[in-house]
Amino acid sequence: MACWKQGIWLAAGLILAGTAAPAQGRSPKKYHATNEHAVVVTRDVLGRHGYVVVRVEDVGNDRVIWYRRGNMGKGKGKGPLVKMIIRRIPAEDRIVFVDVPSPLLVDIDLRLRVP
Predict the structure, then answer these.
(1) b/e per residue 86-100 (b: at least 16 CB within 10 A)
(2) Cβ-proximal residues to 30 (8 Å cutoff; 6+ apart), any chain
(3) Tens-digit pLDDT profile for the chain (115 aa)?
(4) Nearest 10 degrees: CA dihedral of 9, 22, 112, 89?
(5) Beta-bridge partner residues of 63
(6) Are 51 and 70 in contact (CB under 8 A)?
(7) Phi, psi at 114, each rounded to 5°
(8) CA–CA separation, 68 vs 50, rounded Å?
(9) What is the dotted CATH code of the domain comprising 29-113?
(10) What Å distances lie between residue 112 and 19, 31, 106, 107, CA to CA?
(11) Which helix (H) or strand (E) covers residue 96, if one does?
(12) In the chain, what are the domain boundaries?
């Protein structure tokens, strides 16, 4: 009987832990940098990770960067087009990166933090 009660408490704890997790999200980091500097840093980081920048578009206050994975020397073609957005917030004079994979964002963060 004690094992049965432990199972119920364990299940209740897992349910409560699972419902609290989505509420603890973080807002995206904001950087004090120009769009041009952010694009230069992003191009460099993408190149170091084996991606190729296809094009950079200006859409209002945003810069949309289209990139794809290179063939990495295997001759199997290139990857699908993926986009990331560098959003300019004029009221705060800051930029925010949107739709960026975590490994890339870590490197971009390190490069933009250095003065």
Answers:
(1) bbbeeeeeebbbeeb
(2) 89, 92, 94, 95, 96
(3) 566 667 676 666 666 555 544 445 566 778 788 888 999 999 999 999 999 999 999 999 899 999 998 876 777 778 889 999 999 988 888 899 999 999 999 999 999 886 5
(4) -160
(5) 58, 86
(6) yes
(7) -70, 130
(8) 9
(9) 3.30.310
(10) 35, 7, 10, 9
(11) strand 94-98
(12) 29-113
One-letter identity of residue 44: D
CA distance linking residue 87 with residue 35, whole number of Å: 8
Residues 30, 112 contacting (CB under 8 angstroms)? no
Predicted TM-score of the model (pTM)? 0.70
